[in-house]
């Protein structure tokens, strides 16, 4: 892993863990592949995935986004030798309980979200944390898909889905598009050209019908969408988690983060559920509105950001203007004071001159008078 990739992993780890001290207690990471959020040197860490290491390397052998040599050795896997799939709790409970469960880009894949959350709750200690990183459907290949609904989640749970349903497999295969995150944030419309042709979708559905695990995004969602799903599931009594954190998707990114806290088994569940629903309402209210038509929401966000930049610039300009005005007023006051001082100095000088001038002129007048008298005596006709 080069320095850039390592920095990206470190940043994601910081966002996902959000200060959680994983050195305390045992931790389980689900689906770590080649870039685990938790490394074994961070504490008592276990890994679980759908298949074992050999199966993972075979499955991702043609995936350019996964370095198969870096896929970590998993401790537990869900697929049994006979090809059937166990639940998460069945696979990992004997090694539990766990204080922390980390799931990066996992919850959107699970066939039965309710059962999965129940399994995680079963293997967590009271107050244990479930730390999530979830792709935002608006900024990835799910951009054309409708958001997952509570009804779909309940149906999957009612049907006891152990593999992604026909609905999930077909919708995923038929609607996926090449939609880079940068293009989405730039306000582009998702392309109409689908990633897989109809024949590919038909093949994937046939594989599902044969009982094979066809990996796909079962639950496309967003921050507000996940908050709404969890609020109903908690209130319906299906999920024993409170939600401490659901973040908005950061600009330029394609995922958001959540922290769920397992209810205490010794406390009244109805009280804890009411507290959790109230807390979720507050979290949801703080999330950006996602109801407006895409991509106008992005463009509105850009305009809002530009407005905020201009407002900050205006505030700085006004502050500089106030400083310059104050300096000008001080200079003007100093100039006016100097003028008043000069006028007073000139007035004092004129007053002194008025006092001194008579004293200077009297001797001169007497001298002139004497000279004139002498000249008069010297004129002809006078003796």
From TrEMBL:
Pfam families: Methyltransf_23
InterPro entries: SAM-dependent_MTases_sf
Disordered: annotated segments: 323-344
Protein keywords: Methyltransferase, Transferase
GO biological process, one term: methylation
Coiled coil: none
Keyword Transferase carried by entry: yes
UniProt cross-references to SUPFAM superfamilies, sorted A to Z: S-adenosyl-L-methionine-dependent methyltransferases
Name the UniProt record assigns to this protein: Methyltransferase domain-containing protein
Organism: Nocardioides renjunii
């Amino acid at each position: 892993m080069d320095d850039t990739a390592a920095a990206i992993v470190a940043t994601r780890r910081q966002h996902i863990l959000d200060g959680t001290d994983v050195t305390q207690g045992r931790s389980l990471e689900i689906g770590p592949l080649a870039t685990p959020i938790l490394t074994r040197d961070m504490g008592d860490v276990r890994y679980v995935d759908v298949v074992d290491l050999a199966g993972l390397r075979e499955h991702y052998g043609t995936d350019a986004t996964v370095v198969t040599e870096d896929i970590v050795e998993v401790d537990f896997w869900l697929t049994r030798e006979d090809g059937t799939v166990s639940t998460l709790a069945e696979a990992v409970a004997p090694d539990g309980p766990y204080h922390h469960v980390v799931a990066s880009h996992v919850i959107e894949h699970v066939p039965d979200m309710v059962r999965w959350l129940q399994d995680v709750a079963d293997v967590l200690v009271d107050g244990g944390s479930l730390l999530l990183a979830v792709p935002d459907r608006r900024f990835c290949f799910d951009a054309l898909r409708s958001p997952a609904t509570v009804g779909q989640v309940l149906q999957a749970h009612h049907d006891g889905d152990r593999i992604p349903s026909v609905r999930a497999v077909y919708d995923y295969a038929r609607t996926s598009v090449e939609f880079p995150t940068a293009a989405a944030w730039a306000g582009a419309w998702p392309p109409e050209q689908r990633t897989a042709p109809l024949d590919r979708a038909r093949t994937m559905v046939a594989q599902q019908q044969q009982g094979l695990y066809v990996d796909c995004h079962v639950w496309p969602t967003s921050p507000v969408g996940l908050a709404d799903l969890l609020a109903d599931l908690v209130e319906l009594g299906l999920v024993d988690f409170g939600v401490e954190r659901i973040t908005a998707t950061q600009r330029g990114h394609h995922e958001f983060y959540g922290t769920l806290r397992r209810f205490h088994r010794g406390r009244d569940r109805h009280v804890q559920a009411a507290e959790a629903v109230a807390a979720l309402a507050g979290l949801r209210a703080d999330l950006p509105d996602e109801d407006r038509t895409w991509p106008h929401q992005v463009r509105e966000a850009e305009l809002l950001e530009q407005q905020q930049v201009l407002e900050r610039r205006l505030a700085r300009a006004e502050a500089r203007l106030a400083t310059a005005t104050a300096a000008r007023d001080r200079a003007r006051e100093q100039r006016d004071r100097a003028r008043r001082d000069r006028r007073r100095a000139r007035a004092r000088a004129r007053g002194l001159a008025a006092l001194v001038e008579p004293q200077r002129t009297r001797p001169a007048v007497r001298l002139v008078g004497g000279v004139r008298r002498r000249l008069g005596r010297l004129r002809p006709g006078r003796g």
